[in-house]
Amino acid sequence: MTKPARAGGSAAGPPAGPTLSPDRRRRDYAALLEVARDDARRLAAREGRPGLAAKVRSALGVLPLTARVFLQDRPGLAARTAATLRSARRAGAGGDWDTVVETLTPLTRTWPLALQGLTPPAAGADQVRWARRAYEAQCAACHGGPGAGSAPAAPNLFRWARRLPARDFVARMIDGIHGTASVSFANPLSDSQIAGLYAYLRRRAGTGEQGNGGPVRARR
Q1: Cis omega (within 30 of 0) on the bond before 121?
Q2: What pTM did the predictor assign?
Q3: Cα 160 to Cα 204: distance, rounded to the nearest angstrom
Q4: Which of 173, 172, 207, 168 has its CA nearest to residue 193?
Q5: pLDDT at residue 120 above 80?
Q6: Do the beta carbons of residue 168 and residue 108 sit within 8 Å?
Q7: By C-alpha distance, which of 56, 4, 2, 1 is closest to 32?
Q8: CA 55, CA 51: separation in Å to the nearest integer?
Q9: What's the fold here for domain 125-213?
Q10: Where are the domains of the chain?
Q11: pLDDT per position as a tens digit, 122-176
């Protein structure tokens, strides 16, 4: 997903700054934990799509570094947490997804992803209007597909917004949107923008619309 416009601004806004606030570091760390744990749970249940195992192994490789950045002011805890995450990475390398889930679950409870301000009814009408413009300009080509009935090149966000629990969906919005090379791995979306996109996607999914990709159909 390419870098969207800032709410109320143009699509070519300035890149994110080089440093993240403690709250942002915590949010990004909690989101990555949540996504890795839930994807590992799908793999343990043999529900993962092709390529998911490689994605989770990549996330498990990044998590120890992410934990050290988040916990940089608490070096002892950072070292212990990184050691736990390396254990999860070893389990993932061997395809032991049950152990990965068991290892990550306590960490998701210690650092849960806070949803305040990120889910409906947090978004107002202006945020939703911005989200529609941003989606149509920056996201629809991949996530909505080129025409009705075609398979999208990237995950169907309308379907995700309708089916996934709020915490899982928001975590994927945070972890899965890294912008362009100019912002490296920094997510260019603010909390307000995430809330607006989630509200927009949920509302359109509820009406059976998905922009350029045609109607959303339930999986059977």
Answers
A1: yes
A2: 0.70
A3: 12
A4: 173
A5: no
A6: no
A7: 56
A8: 6
A9: Cytochrome Bc1 Complex; Chain D, domain 2 (1.10.760)
A10: 22-110, 125-213
A11: 678 888 888 888 888 878 877 763 334 455 567 788 888 888 888 888 898 887 7
